[in-house]
Automatic annotation (TrEMBL), chains A, B, C, D:
Protein name as it appears in the record: Putative hydrolase (Putative)
Molecular functions per Gene Ontology: dGTPase activity
Source species, domain of life: Bacteria
Gene3D superfamilies in the cross-refs: Hypothetical protein af1432
Length: 452, 452, 452, 452
């Protein structure tokens, strides 16, 4: 242990580091790079305070894990192997995994992955395991198999289920930090919950992590906060609209890049640091050179590009001209081809100027063995030691359980909603489009309307 | 007036827009560009939450001005010209000036200005006055002379002193927002004060803005908060160290650029968007194309540059390897050449690897007609209408008044402080350097030491 | 209007008074008396911060009403009678009713009313309408029918439904203040919601008060907060236990009082100020002389009373020796006589030392014409002006709607749960009692157990 | 150790108890009595939220001491006797002294002590040492000499200076809790400081408690907060006015009591529980029977007393009719007899209706061996282990040091300030009185005025 090092953090107040290895990991270029990757990508276009980085979030996850570990070693230290209590030897692997769990994220994460077919979890593991990174060098100093162990925690294959669940479960250090942090930086007044109380209620058992029953209300509040952050922030239609813009913009770049290549033309409209990604042959060091700034600087140059679609999309993205949207339902989904046709009729390529996008999430669900994406259920420990699943104790959670929140939307250029002068030959098309919308929803327009 | 538009803000809770012109100004590319300029530049390297943008700050200044204006029109509306009360006709010019006051800031503002000899206040006025900007186009719709009026407020030449003081004085909308905002995002627990109370205490008079005497404690608290933010955040030695790095890095680029030019070589190591700045011939549109991302993306490429000094400085800046520092006093300033010589002796170019830097500010001072940078004093209105200067009412402010806070420092590579093995031929030089430091201060080493 | 008067409030920051009549009402003895009535009665025995008074709460309700009224007159001032907008003439009646709505509360309200058969709402109206009170004198200065109008608002018979709903509905100034205030003083981290946002979303219509649909999440959050305060604070089993103690104590006093009376003995163990209540002939002035302190001082004297049951109950109440409790269900309710018999068997009079107590509440319910206690539903205003009931828009509220939260409990002396030495002849009775409890619930003990 | 018991606290979030002895001390009647003693006495008449009890404060001091002790045993456990580090054996004596330090306070403490010549510190020790209290019984179970040790800490005679300074010094658990708690409940927005940071900076040494130099700003902020609470809350003129009323009221009761006694009349206008105090022969059990409620209930009865001065003072106290005040200076002090004479001239007994009252305090002062009330200076530990007194490191504290804040005031009936009709024969006297006041200060009236 070193003499404590303290970092000021607006969400958790202070982040304490007591281990030289943690300090060294923070100091690596691979970790410092996370300063240049925004945690919420385009969300800051809607919530202008949300400029916080994955660097800050990663420190936060580390700090929450550290507080949990301190609680576990003080109150539930294992006495004999297999007693289901906390093994203090797991301390460093837990802290390192918490700190490093997001290491592989790329610029504007989800869109980036979709376009370049990358996967941040796999890159996180590569960075940890590759002998060429400083992260690996630091981890290796702990023990030769330490990088492997940390990678296993992130891959959820680590043998100790307590360690895995503290990093990835329905109520883990990662989620707790991002909910609190995103609430703080967006200014959402809804995402708060009592972190200290939840940590205090953690009770390990052989199968993982449970919570004392007297912490039930704090956990209930966490589940509600999580729901609120989803419906209000993560699913916000305007940030989804900006994400659609970014995705279409990159698709356009990819299209132009391929065109040039096929025609034997140079692709110097893409900066050297981005080239490997478009070429489709990116190595780890090249991957790590790309951050939000590199992507944004390219988009700034593309704003002046001779391809008018690319230049327009870059303008819309940089100058925040989001697509508009309407909700669609099962009943109205059949109308989408008509809507796209109307957008095309006034001159927009529907591949770049329209999109369909769903956002759904289950706020809490108990363990369903058939579920595609298995979720760990939250267990409450009764006075007599029995574990009871949360929704059996909380009427509120039971009420929420298994319900889906979110919506499906069609995105389209905001120009479709504007009034156009009668002399504009396109005016009837715009008017026709607008007939399909009521209270923000796609509707079957009334026949009488179409007669007019 | 339009139907109110509300933006969520973590510091002020909500930002309310009631005027189409304000909404249109926010929507211009020139204003949206401020999203890509960090408010505190390199400070986020020390306070990792401080990633907030000048966009957010500008909205905040607008919102505070709006709240003040609402207070003034409700409680102190002018009845007859010259009665010293608030003229409601000034509303829009106040709000527009508040919103736009930072429009001309460049990337990593202070360093940028120093290197490229630009001035953000003059650029702010250019953007407002140039017929080519969308900002100008929007302002002009209000009235033909409206851009000129807004520019005058920013230049402090506007005839109504109340409007000018609300934007620039010792306790104005700008300062109040940045203190609260910087405290929020850095997580400093010291920078808070009671904004609502201070606004409520504002009392206009013919010469400007005074405060009701019963608000004295709130203002006292503001003065203390301001002092605290200065000594703890703005003067932080590590963020000054990062700023030194950035400055030296850009000086190195400038040097290489000139070298290449003189040698007739290409300067394509600088991206097209930055070229005009290094050429020294930047027009307004080119100026506006440069933001933090463009600069950062260039630094990322420079990390691979063949010039080892540039590459090293870029690495230190991106991977956060700040220079270390010690405080210097009048007595020890004479030792600086020796210190620089020792740094050079182990192989660092002292022009790029050392720096001297002062940070001083007066936390509050009353009006001193001789002062270089004139400051408006804070006036408290007594029961009988007399105005009394703050320090005559507040023992605390009187105690602080006229005192300077801050320090002067020498910056140098952190390697100078490390222990070096005896077999290292440079080891005695490092040891010699370290003799000059005690408790973080530059000292005259004891003669006995030098004997050793 | 007078020059604004500001009261510092920890929950709402500041309370602003602009009307001399409001200031005068606050200054009356009848209103000042509320300083000596705790808002939450015995709840401070569980949440030790919750010592706040009905005085503070009443000011809070006034302040929230004032903020709502300011919003309504700024954004929705009525233009013509019957346009469904806000009639500014209602301002003062709204503010006065908000301030005075709790005037009639007695000491430790609910218990007090139960024992002395008083009703605080009827006393509130008496105080307002009686020509003998200073409250009445102040109100009368506004207009001769003004006391009557204020009383009507409290009785919900006032013709303007907007005024009535702002004081009493599912989301009114009263509830909003007490939820925030009780959360603040108990320290519950769950009861917060975004008051400013909710106020801003208020939209009057001819039938009352609706909310803009874009405020839906803020209202959803309010409904959840309300639920959380109920289950965690208002229904807390220990505070119900203390209330049971107080009630039985007063019943014992009443019993002794009647006994003495029948036996022609003096009742000087009851202080002069309390005598009228026990005599059953209390006039308004006498009623107003009784506050928490008067009741508490009597209980302090009763601790030394020669009646051992009274002395013991007074000791338990003052020294915080609450009864313990277990939950009971429909299935186990039949066992209650056995439980009471066991308590009696060890020497406690079950009338004073046991109690059954239910706490149930519906967190939100839409309007049910059959319901005993009619509730106004919360209406959301859509873009096109339609009103839609909250649960049709909020999946979360729909999930909660109509569900009951709370429990039924049997209270008994904590001594029943203690271990007793084998030589204690009562030991088997205690053991028998304890067999009926598992995880805090009353259960049917297993037959095998009873064999032992 | 027992399984942790958690109490919800609005200021410190949670209070944790791990020791059965602490739990038992909390459960004693002597400690529960503190629920019925307000922490700030009459201050709640000005800051209506400040109804918090000494019970809550005492728990808070305990909790802060517990957190400090945890910090000390984790980071600075003593290895060998005399190494200046923290001796874990002191844990329980520290916690018990922290919890019990205010045990002897009477109702409305300072006034009470002044009238009845009692001293709360000496009563605290009596309660701890007397074999008749339950407090003593619980403490004795730890060790026979344990009550004595706890009493020594409170008397500052305990041999370990670290324990003593944690309970009583310029920055101790007691002050830290009351500043935070009083700020929270009054709603003062100024009294906050970073408790967690200060605790973390605590560094024991053989002579007591020092703080790491890097905590300097947090301590500076504490000193400022303390100053702010003094000038804004503790010295508030209206709460001093209410205290004057209470004092004069009790003096009147004392006078009447003596009169009756001398005349052989009954004193049954004083309730049995208060009798011993007025008789001047109070034993410990009798002392402990008196709390705020007992005193308040008496005052309620006195409001109906036949002595018109007593009845009027009781009315003014209960119905909050504070005396008004003006500041007096050395220069104007000589005018006080004239002012009193004018008050008497309109019919008020100046002994009961006027008062002179000073409030001064030094916000921070270093150790002055001559000072009447010795203060421990705050020491900062430098990198090399040296201790440096705070004001030598903090320009802000140096600026504040040794300055006195506060004022001296004359209190008088508010009627003196009212306008009186010309026909009132007393009108000229009121007018004369008012000539002596300007901007709230006592002044020498201008001669021209007196001519009129």
């Amino acid at each position: 242990m070193i003499k404590e090092k303290i970092l000021r953090d607006p969400v958790l107040n202070e982040i304490h580091v007591y281990d030289q290895v943690i300090l060294d990991l923070i100091g690596t270029p691979e970790f410092q790079r996370l300063r240049r990757i925004k945690q919420l990508g385009v969300t800051s276009e809607v919530f202008h305070g949300a400029e916080h980085s994955r660097f800050a979030h990663s420190l936060g996850v580390y700090e929450i894990a550290r507080r949990i570990e301190m609680h576990l070693s003080l109150f539930y230290p294992s006495q004999t192997a297999g007693d289901g209590l906390w093994d203090k030897e797991e301390r460093l692997v837990l802290l390192a995994a918490a700190l490093l769990h997001d290491l592989g994220h790329g610029a504007y994460s989800h869109t980036f992955e979709h376009i370049f077919k990358t996967d941040h979890e796999s890159y996180t593991q590569k960075i940890i395991l590759s002998p060429d990174t400083q992260i690996h060098a630091v981890l290796e100093q702990v023990a030769p198999d330490f990088p492997e162990k940390v990678a296993q925690v992130i891959a959820k294959t680590y043998p100790n289920p307590q360690v895995v669940q503290l990093i990835s479960s329905q109520i883990d250090a990662d989620r707790m930090d991002y909910l609190l942090r995103d609430a703080y930086f967006t200014g959402a007044s809804y995402g708060h919950f009592d972190l200290a109380r939840i940590i205090q209620m953690i009770h390990p058992y052989e199968g993982g992590i449970a919570f004392d029953d007297k912490g039930m209300y704090a956990i209930e509040d966490y589940v509600v906060s999580r729901y609120q952050m989803y419906v209000q922030v993560y699913f916000h239609p305007v940030s989804r609209a900006m994400e659609v813009l970014l995705q279409h913009l990159l698709e356009r770049v990819m299209y132009l890049y391929q065109q040039n290549k096929e025609n034997g033309l140079q692709n110097n409209f893409v900066s050297p640091l981005l080239q490997p990604l478009f070429r489709g042959e990116v190595n780890l060091q090249e991957y790590l050179m790309v951050d939000d700034a590199v992507l944004l600087a390219n988009i700034s140059e593309w704003r002046l590009n001779e391809d008018s679609v690319l230049a327009d999309l870059a303008h819309r993205f940089l100058d925040r001209v989001p697509l508009k949207s309407m909700t669609i339902s099962k009943q109205t989904r059949g109308l989408l081809p008509e809507m796209r046709a109307l957008v095309e009729a006034v001159g927009y390529d529907p591949n770049y100027y329209t999109a369909e996008n769903d956002s759904f999430d289950l706020p809490y669900d108990d363990f369903d063995p058939e579920a595609f994406k298995q979720r760990t259920q939250i267990e409450l420990r009764q006075q007599n030691g029995d574990l009871v699943e949360l929704s059996q104790r909380s009427t509120l959670v039971e009420a929420l359980m298994g319900r889906e929140f979110g919506d499906a939307r069609l995105f389209f250029p905001r120009e479709m909603l504007q009034e156009h002068p009668v002399e504009d030959v396109m005016a009837p098309i715009y008017a026709d489009f607008q007939r399909y919308i009521e209270n923000g929803q796609l509707i079957e327009p009334k026949p009488t309307d179409s007669v007019k």
